[in-house]
Amino acid sequence: VLMREIMLWYKESLSPQALALIRLLGACDRPLSPVCLDLMLSKNCTDPLRKQSFQAAKLECESLLSTDEAGRLDLHSIVREVFQEEWLEADSKQAQAAHGILADFYTSQAEAAVKRGNPTLQELEPAFAAMHHRIMREELNTARTIFNDVVQQGERFYLVNVLGAWGFIAKCFSYVVWCP
To answer: Angle between the 77-90 and 2-13 helix axes, to the nearest 10 degrees?
Structure first.
């Protein structure tokens, strides 16, 4: 309850651009790479946040953000959850568009890894991100197709038969099914 009150204070205190940045990061289930962030800004699904206002928005909400060594932006999981819910309630059309863009982006990354041949677990990670975003859009059949075609590679059952990742597949699949 206290965390929600603090987040409400942030919501009322932040500029519309900074709030849009926090909502965008809230929609992600993982840190957002600079490439992915640039894609989101260029697709105009982060209204009123634009490329030219991004740096100012980032500085304004700096206390809520973290940046890893690869330059990916992230939020604490509680902050992410609060603002994800808030964005879905405030502008579900924009949030759904953002989930679609992220799903397409992550799907293309995972498919490229499969085309290169014998992807590692790390290279398949975007497929699970794509599944998460498809589920957030309530596109369960598409999420299942990504799992079957990209992750499992059809009858090859890639994760189990090739990588021997019994525990990993259970963990990742349960994560996708019980995503926030």
So the answer is: 60
CA angle 22, 147, 180 (to 5 degrees): 30
Count how many residues are written for the chain.
Answer: 180
Asked if 27 and 102 count as a contact pair (C-beta separation under 8 A), the reply is: yes
The answer to whether 20 touches 48, Cβ cutoff 8 Å, is yes
For residues 117 and 162, the answer to whether their CB atoms sit within 8 Å is no
In which band, very low, low, confident or very high, does the pLDDT at 104 lie, cut at 50, 70 and 90? very high
Confidence class of residue 105 from pLDDT cuts 50, 70 and 90?
Answer: very high
pTM of the model: 0.74
Q: In 3-state terms, what secondary structure has residue 32?
A: strand
Q: Which of 45, 99, 153, 116 is nearest to 169 (CA)?
A: 153
